[in-house]
Q: What sequence folds into this?
């Protein structure tokens, strides 16, 4: 069956395609179109999700039943070849997802390093020649051009590619399939927008976009290319159902994390902790395979690039911030400082979330005015960022180069922690070393344990505030923007500050304090625990820090949870995605159905006339109908459950009525409709 | 309410205690005893689990509903103090579980190291004086005495403490509460039996028992001590329900893994991957907290012991096998060797599982004859192990000490990899270095990268076969015996063998091959992926091995899964614990209810007379009854679901009947019973 609906064209189409595939497997009713299925749906901003309301096409929870039905009917009659085909293809798909995500991540790394490196070299050379205005012009010019590219892509081609993408993927995996979240155009913009955005020097990360990219790749491969662009394969028909698609996208999200942080185990845990609600052990196994593939691909490609074959990219191994091998030993003062860090992280994190939320709401007013306004906003923020990156270092005094270091000082090349900026020979500007470099290099400098006095206290304070507020005002503009890197930067700077202040009496070195600071701020904003812990471990390869890191994360999450929700949850709420938590909010205990439904209420009784059902389907645009038994069948009106439009269509198409229990001549078709409704209700109970 | 049932005395009691606590919260019906609830149940060996059959008291799945009911009715009327009390106590309990598990693990470590160390020193000194027979007598004597202690404890006090304990904990967390699995006596025997067993030189680990110990501690704390020994606290009444108990025991199991391997993240993942079916994000968070506490406790205690204040225990940090810091770089030959290792691991693993199963079945015949037979079996295996440990090293030729090593050779003290055994000065016996030492030290030697030629090929072959077969015949005797250590030992030996053979052409060193071998064999027997990976990482602190480790685990698990199931699953089946997999086996598709029920079939219809219900409850010992609607209510007999004995008792006690819909004078109490049955069925749908 060739469904005329395209998955990325419309939410309703997705539903239809799914039903289409069921029909296909179901047998002879496959030729019937769904004339009563809604084709377009509007999005509202209500947070309360209702299965069947016309908010978003929420996936039905019936995939288990449907799959079981499928198996019962068809499995035994199918040839073994088909079963083998299914299993083999699923693994092939998972392998392909891992491979592609690894390749995309690697391409992203190389592109960012080369573009940003070129820009920084240019600026640095002009600075060396003391052409200060030209240097600023070069920096700001490059930034604005790159930012404009990212913004144009994002605003005109795929608005859904803006932002982190993690909230959207999370929402998708929890049953909310919002408009074009995983479309190929989104994928395209996410990849290139992220490269331009990060290279433009914004305080954004590539981690969130990489997760989204992984999910998009999984979606694209899972449906065998896009129907819109005539890139589809028939042999992928088995995967055109909610369950397989969700599995694949979970793998894709895990692969994204694994690729972004080069953290395969962290990827699995992220998918588990943050993303997926429907978790099965088979999924763990498959996700693990995907991230292993990503790790192997990345490892091989990094090996390949060791000999400067990839331009400016070439350093670094599989572990991104493997720069601090200090063995942590700590005394009571250290422990107190760590607890303090946890509390600070919690407070700063919740304030950060609060401010991000406010800024996002402001930006969404601007963004709604049209694509040109979005691009303008991006350009303004880009100029602001450039001013900040170029202007703030002037506040720092020049520091004489230390004698006892191996690194060259001041730095000659692009990377390195001792940028000379405006300073005379033999001196370096510590703020410039943090600001006029890539975000990854800045993190490396902060985590480093080589020179505890590398950064002055005032510089760390300036840098913290710059990162904190730039991070807040940058998220929400129309570029793909991850939150991890800004948060790590801000956290590491206050962590290093604490370490610097306590240096005379503390045992832990300043680099480890920076790591703990990053952990505390991440815990305070993202509110993840196990996956963050593993990701940070895999980022820094310092397993001995584990107990301290767990402590910091526990404290910061607990403190921050007193004030508000995690930043991804806030974004999900703000975007109006009807995300249902695993546990009900307290206020929901007082809600009645009337609070959440829209339009006139159409109910069916457990036994219903087909003509009534047809009439209701034609007259309303509701996606679900409560089934209520009323007296005299029961002693009080009783809600049996909810029947979805799509279920009713299946029944109607299959003509699954009975004439068995006619109570009067007019009510011919009631009996079996009753049974089926009951069965459906039971299945969702 | 003081329930007269004790949780550890009897399965039925556990069910009753749960119902008791519900009643307690429910209100005024708390004084009613359950005369119809069965007090004793027999265990069968059928693998097919039926809720309600008289196999094992399987926990009902209704805790969500019950808790919701509880909340709806009581939550608003309760004082805020009580809510705070609940939350505070849960965290306190979790903290206590972490603390106690950490302390117990540490006590275990110190005891084992001191007892085994004393034994090995004694034997070593006698060997140095060339008193070979006396040395053997000392070794075998110590071993037999220790083994007898362990066996007597295990056979006479708590037979449930034999074996690993992981299958039982897994079964418990998946709803099967077998007899006295988590009783205080089991805890006691598990702690001391494990110490004696490991110290007795058996090829057993302390990891499985530690997981079981953690679960027992959690159970003990969760119910506020044992009722049997009058050690209970009233303020723990909130936790006397299935859900909280399961949560706590999950935390306990995670704490056990964390304590055994000093691997906090591995503990969380183990609990997630292997143990718990009912996983919620709150549980992740709580488990993480528990294992963090364990890590901090262990870290502090190990710091404390650095100055030889703990006898022979004193070396080692938080990472147990942190002995190989070689940076893995590999070529094509290495990769092929690694794939080969994975395949070997899968094949050896599945054969291992097969043989363990056969041996277990043989042993269970012996064990059933009575406690004295069990002790005898333990003594026989102990003598066999001693013969092996003392006899096999005579097969090895003396090797001249290498010149370029820092370690002393031959070893003077207790630990060290160069035991002289029968060799003249300046020589060492490599097999003795592996066999006449603690299992941990043997693993350390195998993983070590210091001297690639330390072990000869023939010695590694002998050692592999010794460990492989001793491991198989040791599991199943009446001592607490973990499977991890034997599997790691055997795997590491063939891994090192491959590394040794490929040394001239491979890039990876032999120690890393040993690690990969251990991973492959673990994957082939346990069939875990993510948690094993993380545990091995935390054991060895070599993050760069991650991609290779993932590869090996994937291959070995895939290969082994072609032949049979994981070893824990096999043990669960063999013990007759009615464990239900997340997915149905193919043959179950053809099962009908009649295949699994016992006794005469008693069914209720959706609408049932109270007198019928009462009569059936009195006459049968069934724990559940199918509810079937028959014509004329439906057009064909239709199974509505299953109602549990305990549910019926709740209804009967609450007198929740109605007289609304009397069809005849005799059928007075039918109406509401119908509704309630429907509701219960719905809730479990």
A:
């Amino acid at each position: 069956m060739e469904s005329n609906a395209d998955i990325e064209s419309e939410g309703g189409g997705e539903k239809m395609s799914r039903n289409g595939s069921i029909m296909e497997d179901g047998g002879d009713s496959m030729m019937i179109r769904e004339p009563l299925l809604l084709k377009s749906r509007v999005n509202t901003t209500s947070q309360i999700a209702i299965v069947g309301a016309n908010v978003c096409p929420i996936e039905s929870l019936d995939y288990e039943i449907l799959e079981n039905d499928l198996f019962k009917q068809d499995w035994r009659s199918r040839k073994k070849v088909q079963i083998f085909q299914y299993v083999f293809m699923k693994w092939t798909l998972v392998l392909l997802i891992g491979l592609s995500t690894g390749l995309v991540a690697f391409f992203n790394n190389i592109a960012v390093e080369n573009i940003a490196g070129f820009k920084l070299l240019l600026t640095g050379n002009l600075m060396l020649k003391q052409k200060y205005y030209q240097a600023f012009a070069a920096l700001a010019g490059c930034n604005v051009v790159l930012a404009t590219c990212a913004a144009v892509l994002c605003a005109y081609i795929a608005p859904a590619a803006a932002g982190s993408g993690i909230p959207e993927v999370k929402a998708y995996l929890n049953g909310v399939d919002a408009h074009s979240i995983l479309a190929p155009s989104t994928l395209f913009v996410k990849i290139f927008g992220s490269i331009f955005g990060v290279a433009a020097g914004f305080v954004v990360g590539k981690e969130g976009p990489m997760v989204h990219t992984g999910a998009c790749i999984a979606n694209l491969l899972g449906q065998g290319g896009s129907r819109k662009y005539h890139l589809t394969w028939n042999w992928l028909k088995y995967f055109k159902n909610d369950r397989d698609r969700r599995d694949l996208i979970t793998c894709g999200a895990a692969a994204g994390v694994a690729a972004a942080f080069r953290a395969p185990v962290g990827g699995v845990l992220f998918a588990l902790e943050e993303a997926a609600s429907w978790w099965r052990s088979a999924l763990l196994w498959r996700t693990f395979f995907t991230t292993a593939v990503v790790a192997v691909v990345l490892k091989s490609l990094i090996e390949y690039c060791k000999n400067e074959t990839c331009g400016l990219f070439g350093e670094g191994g599989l572990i991104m911030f493997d720069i601090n091998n200090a063995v942590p030993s700590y005394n009571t003062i250290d422990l107190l400082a760590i607890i303090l860090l946890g509390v600070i992280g919690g407070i700063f994190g919740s304030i950060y979330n609060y401010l991000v939320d406010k800024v996002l709401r402001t930006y969404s007013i601007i963004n709604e005015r049209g694509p040109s306004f979005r691009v303008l906003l991006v350009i303004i923020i880009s100029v602001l960022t450039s001013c900040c990156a170029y202007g703030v270092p002037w506040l720092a005094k020049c520091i004489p180069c230390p004698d006892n270091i191996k690194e060259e000082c001041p730095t000659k090349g692009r990377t390195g922690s001792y940028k000379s900026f405006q300073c005379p020979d033999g001196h370096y500007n510590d703020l410039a070393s943090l600001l006029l470099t890539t975000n990854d290099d800045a993190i490396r400098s902060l985590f480093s344990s080589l020179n505890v006095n590398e950064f002055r206290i005032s510089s760390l304070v300036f840098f913290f505030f710059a990162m904190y507020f730039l991070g807040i005002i940058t998220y929400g503009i129309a570029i793909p923007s991850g939150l991890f890197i800004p948060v790590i930067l801000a956290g590491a700077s206050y962590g290093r500050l604490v370490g610097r202040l306590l240096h005379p009496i503390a045992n832990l070195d300043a680099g480890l304090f920076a790591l703990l600071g990053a952990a505390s701020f991440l815990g305070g904003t993202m509110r993840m625990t196990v996956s963050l812990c593993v990701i940070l471990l895999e980022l820094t390869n310092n397993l001995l820090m584990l107990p301290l890191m767990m402590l910091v994360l526990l404290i910061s999450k607990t403190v921050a949870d007193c004030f508000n929700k995690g930043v991804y949850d806030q974004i999900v709420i703000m975007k109006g995605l009807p995300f249902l938590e695993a546990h009900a909010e307290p206020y929901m205990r007082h809600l009645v159905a009337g609070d959440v439904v829209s339009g006139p209420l159409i109910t069916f009784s457990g036994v219903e006339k087909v003509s009534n059902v047809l009439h209701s389907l034609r007259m309303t645009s509701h996606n679900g109908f409560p089934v209520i038994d009323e007296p005299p069948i029961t002693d009080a009106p009783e809600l049996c459950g909810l029947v979805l439009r799509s279920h009713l269509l299946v029944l109607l198409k299959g003509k699954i009525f009975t004439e068995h229990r006619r109570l009067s001549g007019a009510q011919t078709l009631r009996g079996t409709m009753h049974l089926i409704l009951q069965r459906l209700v039971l299945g969702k109970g």
Summary: Chain B has a mean pLDDT of 77. Chain B touches chain A through 55 residues (CB under 8 Å). The longest helix of chain B spans residues 80-128. Residues 98 and 293 of chain B are 5 Å apart (CA to CA).
